[in-house]
């Protein structure tokens, strides 16, 4: 990307030289800065065999219409070779609103699956091998999905200490999206930390948090800002775990998972992941003194960036997604979601879903890039850029810590001012031509000259009334005494320093709805206003 003075830079504004030589990497100590895969500092990968041992998990964030429709789509994806499941909830579920809430009347099942009970969760995973395939739950912090999944697994006879999967559960994630009906970040932070502690003791194979920079990245920030925010997130949670002292820090952070974006700048995205692995090790093992080296491993899911998809000439997105998938692979991801090419237009059609899965399979099994580990390692450019991204990310963390840490940077609006400025900067670069988007501001065709039309996914809106009737029946038939007692206990626990997850789990098992869980939290913590205009 060239600026108005002709300077070539990465998407984050890092100047790029015309050629790189040994002089650019002369300060690198191979053992200290690069090392071998599976060993600190993990620059080349968190596992010794990486993809020579097994490919990454192919996991697409999926959900639409109803639990029944989503179950059918999961079965299709599994039959096509998908190796993990990810629940994409509709707006009502993470917003903590029930289907008969008029505020979400037009959002039920529209852009995800609505799940309001353990029975809905059982429907989503009916006849699917959750004992073989792990699941990712994009659950509201303190929400219904995780306890409902645990209850479903136990009903199938799977002990909690054997249940595998991941909960989103991250304050950075949910505070980055303007969702209605949200508690303040302090509540997110308390509830998410509670789940981390609880899982460390009772569900040790579950990843209780996926520290997520994907959604912030979709707000327009750069790769450097994304990495800086993510690592500041790690620091904030480790400081809280250390302050509480309820769980040894090595157990507290043992199952941290991560979710990052793959954007358009191929080498910058590869180097971002390599730098991230090095930074996490320094934070966990050096700064916080955790002795277990595995706690410093960046086990990361990478999703191709939805914000890069265009509705103009949507087939161009096929190429973008393929290159972003390649960046995730060359960067050493453990799990990858390739988007549907039509997501700027509609929910993915079956055609787009198939193509997304095949994209990952072709990269993994046909391209040859998995034949050796970290094939770009040692490149003068790659090692130099990895160093520069790490250095700039540390500088960005310093800015966040100057605000008092990530939690305070969110609550005082600093983070959201960063999002706002990033959106303005992106728009200005697009208008000036400094940033090129093919088919949008360069080589753009008139819409009637584009020689194809893509299929459009059409939602079945009849499911909305079914879901309304279903939750009405649930309220009428649940054990009212048990439900009332569970809600009373949740209210009491929320007003103490005690761990809230056992009470949330008990309330879900008593058939509390997402709307009731959200109301209980906001009764204590109040409602948060998204500060994008601050």
User: In percent terms, what proportion of residues is strand?
Assistant: 5-15%
Uncertain ranges: none
> What is the average of the pLDDT values?
95
Q: What profile does the largest beta sheet have? A: 9 strands, parallel
The number of helical segments is 21
Q: What gyration radius follows from the Cα positions, in whole Å? A: 23 Å
Q: Can you describe this structure in just a few lines?
A:
By secondary structure, the protein is of the alpha/beta class. It has 21 helices and nine strands.
Strand and helix layout:
Layout: H1 30-34, H2 50-53, E1 57-62, H3 67-79, E2 84-87, H4 92-95, H5 118-124, E3 135-137, H6 145-155, E4 165-167, H7 171-175, H8 185-202, E5 206-207, E6 209-212, H9 214-217, H10 223-244, H11 249-252, E7 256-262, H12 266-287, E8 300-304, H13 316-330, E9 335-337, H14 350-365, H15 380-402, H16 406-411, H17 414-432, H18 463-477, H19 480-494, H20 501-509, H21 514-525
Parallel strand pairs: 1-2, 1-9, 2-3, 3-4, 4-5, 6-7, 7-8, 8-9
